[in-house]
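Pilot study result, target chain (115 residues):
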Amino acid sequence: MPSLIIIIFGYFRALLGVLKDPAVKGLALFITLYLLFGTFFYHRTEGWSYLDSAYFCVVTLATVGFGDFTPKTSLGKFFTIFYIMIGIGSFVAFATALAQNMVERRSNRRKRLSK
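Predicted structure:
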C-alpha cells in the first residue's frame, strides 16, 4: 500500500510540473473542456447520468472501451465517431507530455544524487 501512495503522489507531482508549460496547460484545458462537452452531450442525447457520461468519455478517449455503455441513437453514434477522432490524439499528446515530465524529473534527480 505505501508504494501505491508513492506512485500516486509522483503522478500528481508530475501533473503539477507539466502544467507549468503553457502549451501543455492549454492542452489540459482543451481536454478538460472536451470531456465536459462530451459528458453534457451524452447526458442530453443518450439520457445517461452525468457520471455515466463522464465515465464513457474517459474510457473512450483512453481507448479502453469496456463496452458497458454504447450510444444507441444515430446522433450519438455519429458524434462518437468524431469525438474519438479528435479526442484520442489530444489525450495521447497530454499523456506523452506527462510521461516525459516524469522521466525528466527522475533523470534530473539521479544526476543530482550522483554528484
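One observation from the pilot: The chain has a mean pLDDT of 88. A full batch analysis is planned for the follow-on phase.
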